[in-house]
């Protein structure tokens, strides 16, 4: 990725907009999508090329949005048909590389240590959508599977506020801070690490009932109630690959020390 690179970012929400701001000035052009006309005007004032794009209702404007070398897909939509339509549009465009921001929810809760090389026995919708982009010859694709997202406006102390109950109190926590998400994405772009799957998750995995109680108390909230599940999850997301392959170093390796 050079200074003359154009990047399109599908999704300008909690992660997409700060990511775009991080890349502004690093690359030549950033195309940024939204489904809101009002927000598109706001994005334009920030220095981005703003586009109205909804993959459920594809318009002719999508090809203008896709006028880049790199596409970062960062939306929560789970419609396979919508992503199939998007893939067809990408195949007609100038996009050479796709970075798909996925989730560690692709791993089953019955898996213990989850590594990128693991076979996923029960293919959920998200896994099927990942494969739409990895099993394609028109462009290179890298998948980043992010753990639970914390950071500005997403303090873990608020996750179970208002009487919400922790359903699996003895399960381990798998989280990553927004700052590290953005740095991980930028690292993949800088190193041209295409054709890969990476997990994004902090180093520490405290027990949910203890961690969320501590985080709630730090904000002055009452400790959340919890249930101990009969068949609790042992799921822990392994992050060794991004350290070994990319040389990635976390700003927030210990989620217990985070004040968002």
TrEMBL record:
<protein>
    <submittedName>
        <fullName>dTDP-glucose 4,6-dehydratase</fullName>
    </submittedName>
</protein>
<dbReference type="InterPro" id="IPR036291">
    <property type="entry name" value="NAD(P)-bd_dom_sf"/>
</dbReference>
<dbReference type="InterPro" id="IPR051783">
    <property type="entry name" value="NAD(P)-dependent_oxidoreduct"/>
</dbReference>
